[in-house]
Amino acid sequence: MSIQDIYQKTIKFAAQKHTDQNQTIPGTDLPYIVHLSNVAMEILLASERSENFDGKLAVQVALLHDVLEDTPTTYEELENKFGQPVAKGVLALTKNADLEKDQRMMDSLNRIKKLPKEVWAVKLADRITNLQPPPAHWSEEKIKKYKLEAEIILKELHGGNEYLEKRLEQKIKEYN
């Protein structure tokens, strides 16, 4: 199956799952699929600039990366529809709600680092996409914490994807 066909199948699934939850990008009226397609765009550009990069795996994980965390979709449903490598990637990117809030990101990063570099790339692309101007209701403290988290992600996933690491580094410098 071509990457275009994979993209179409995956974005339709993800769009429906997030739309069923009436999910929008926080602080906006934009449908959540805009965020997912922006993460996938970062992945597609990284794929063109990276050797030995499985763009098909990465674009599926990018489009689905929040589906376990934000919708009633199950791991089994993902595995049956998209295969184990995709489902495992999405699961690694999903924060474990059973952990204390301050432990969730490092737990996810540790699980991500056990998987192919394409999953690392999705985490980098997700944070790049999220480093837009922060929502107006965020406090200065929350903005600083979010920037610090981005720096931790960059450090922990160093060596995952040179192109995306440079993009994230630039976004961190620009983030206020």
TrEMBL record:
Keywords: Hydrolase. It holds the Pfam family HD_4. It comes from Chryseobacterium glaciei. SUPFAM superfamilies: HD-domain/PDEase-like. Gene3D superfamilies: Hypothetical protein af1432 (1.10.3210.10). The keyword Hydrolase applies. It comes from the Bacteria. This is Guanosine polyphosphate pyrophosphohydrolase. GO terms for molecular function: guanosine-3',5'-bis(diphosphate) 3'-diphosphatase activity.
